[in-house]
Amino acid sequence: MTTLSPEEIERYKRHLLVKNIGGQGQQRLKAARVLIVGAGGLGSPLLMYLAAAGVGALGIIDDDRVSLGNLQRQVAYRTDDIGALKTERAAALVHALNPHVEVEAMPFRLTAENALSVVSRYDIVADGSDNFATRYLVNDACYFARKPLVFAALGQMEGYVSTFRAFEMDESGTPRPSYRDLFPEPPAPGEIPSCEEAGVLGPVTGVIGTLQAVEVVKAILGLEGTLVGRLLIYDALVGRFQTIALKWDANNPLTGLAPSIRDLTVHAADSEQRA
């Protein structure tokens, strides 16, 4: 188990007092490697809280640059960052927050060709992407690499969080649900607008990204009560949280009884279109 230095003990002492964390839990956080897909509205609070919590290594993948329109919700960036690569600025922020955290900045897209090699190098994946093609790709890559996936998404004034471990069976021997059980098929182009197209209340991204960070930490620590098999929904307009149960679909093309998806080549066309 990775040991903590005296400086780290002082830094994390509020964690060490929590009975569900303690010294061993903090050592698990230090030993963990988390991949963050998307360094935008969700990725901003996510990477900040994971760094502050002492997660030992963070990978941040995003090919975008900071724009003025990002600053309303992407709190990892400042006005002076406009035009800079998000991954570079995010990595600098992580180092400033916690020099004990290693960061790998990946200023490129996740594609059908590189997804497995990237995902396989981490213990847990947190998806904060804002398009369906990437979400399906991340889901499938995590399934094949047998990596837990903490998913989050946003609406204008609502957000969603869940944890997928589709490579495992539940107590009854049934496969645990995946993103493809939540959304069996991608919506038609333009049917559901992206955050850039529809807009979003800035603080909602902070709420959901922070909840996503909590789920990642719980997964690292092996705590009970994760959102595996459940979808957490936050409605900011009425101030309400609710959870709904997710179920495995026997017709799921990835994990169903007769799966048609055997590798990531099904995503090759989408990767080319997004390139």
From TrEMBL:
Pfam families: ThiF
Top-level enzyme category: transferase
Substrates-to-products reaction catalysed: [molybdopterin-synthase sulfur-carrier protein]-C-terminal Gly-Gly + ATP + H(+) = [molybdopterin-synthase sulfur-carrier protein]-C-terminal Gly-Gly-AMP + diphosphate
Sorted UniProt keywords: ATP-binding, Membrane, Nucleotide-binding, Transferase, Transmembrane, Transmembrane helix
Coiled-coil spans in chain: none
Listed EC numbers: 2.7.7.80
GO CC terms, sorted: cytosol
Domain THIF-type NAD/FAD binding fold positions: 12-247
Domain of life: Bacteria
Recorded GO MF terms: ATP binding; molybdopterin-synthase adenylyltransferase activity; sulfotransferase activity; thiosulfate-cyanide sulfurtransferase activity; ubiquitin-like modifier activating enzyme activity
TM annotation in the entry: 34-61
NCBIfam families: PRK05690.1
Family in the record: Belongs to the HesA/MoeB/ThiF family.
PANTHER family from the UniProt entry: ADENYLYLTRANSFERASE AND SULFURTRANSFERASE MOCS3, UBIQUITIN-ACTIVATING ENZYME E1
Quaternary structure and partners: Homodimer. Forms a stable heterotetrameric complex of 2 MoeB and 2 MoaD during adenylation of MoaD.
Function: Catalyzes the adenylation by ATP of the carboxyl group of the C-terminal glycine of sulfur carrier protein MoaD.
Protein name as annotated: Molybdopterin-synthase adenylyltransferase
Species lineage: Bacteria, Pseudomonadati, Pseudomonadota, Alphaproteobacteria, Hyphomicrobiales
